[in-house]
Amino acid sequence: MSPAPTTHVETVDFVMLYIVGISVILLLGITATMIYFVFKYHRKKGHQPVDIHGNFWLELIWIAVPTALVLSMFYFGYTGFRDLRDIPADAFKVKVEAMMWKFSFKYDNGKQTDTLYVPINTPIHLEMTSVDVNHAFFIPAFRIKEDIINNKVTDLYFKPEELGKYDVACAEYCGLKHSMMYTAVKVLPKQEFDAWYDAKSNESTSVITK
Ligand SMILES: [Cu+2]
After folding, report:
1. Per-residue pLDDT tens for 194-209?
2. Is the pTM of the predicted complex or chain greater than 0.85?
3. Residue 173 C-alpha to ligand 1 middle, in angstroms?
4. How far lies 115's CA from each of 103, 130, 144, 166, 204, in Å?
5. Number of continuous H segments (helices) and E segments (strands) in the chain
6. pLDDT tens digit string along 110-156?
7. How many whole angstroms from 34 Cα to the centroid of ligand 1?
8. Alpha-carbon span 132 to 175, nearest angstrom
9. How many angstroms separate the alpha carbon of residue 16 from the centre of ligand 1?
10. What is the whole-number distance in angstroms between the Cα of residue 75 and the centre of ligand 1?
11. Nearest-CA neighbor of 170 among 139, 206, 207?
12. Domains assigned to the chain
């Protein structure tokens, strides 16, 4: 497996697999028990059913085990979420403006682009707002997504660790051309990014197209 493009990928995928894994094991276990009971306790001639009034240990187990499982899901979900929200103060800031139906990226030095360019191995902080309706910023390969709201600033954070070009999509239905509201994030080597950042032209001459 190739290395993940950001550290968030491992965290988010782990939580996902953990929850789905537990759910699948429980589904199979409960279904198997149910089928077994249907055969074991079906009506038989000459069999007298008896009522059972409580079983302390059984009840303790079926309260304690699901509680522990759900709390562990919460724990991994919460620590993963904290990683996504813990934005380093020295992160490289890019302002994102969403509008029907495109994204615009503004850098501190005045540069403005339609494609997001970022240097590798650098924490990136996106400060996002919308000039019209609600949108959402989604980079599937990085496992990050956040709403973009009019008159409000929302944030996203990631640290790219793999060079390349990754899809960015709007993930909130925002009108007629919502389905075409796509752009890309290009992760460049540090030197190449600096050259682009300091150059007059807005477009990168990068050969990265994958
Ligand atoms: Cu949109």
Report:
1. 999 988 766 655 545 4
2. no
3. 6
4. 8, 17, 17, 10, 10
5. 3, 10
6. 899 999 999 999 999 999 999 999 999 999 999 999 999 999 999 99
7. 46
8. 11
9. 26
10. 32
11. 139
12. 7-43+53-85 (1.10.287.90), 92-198 (2.60.40.420)
Residue type at 196?
Answer: W
Beta-carbon count within 10 A of 126 CB: 26
Neighbours of ion ligand 1 (CB under 5 A): 135, 170, 174, 181
* Dist. CA 98 → ligand 1 center (Å): 7
User: pLDDT (tens digit, 9 = 90+) per residue, 50-87?
Assistant: 888 889 999 999 999 999 999 999 999 999 899 889 99
Eight-class DSSP state of 9: H
Look-up of token digits 């187990």: 61
Q: For residue 176, how far is its CA from the centre of ligand 1 (angstroms)?
A: 10
Distance from the CA of 177 to the center of ligand 1, in angstroms? 8
What is the spatial distance between Cα 15 and Cα 75, in angstroms, rounded to a whole number? 10
Residues 6 or more apart whose Cβ sits within 8 Å of residue 10 = 4
Distance 28 CA to ligand 1 centre (A): 40
Distance 164 CA to ligand 1 centre (A): 24
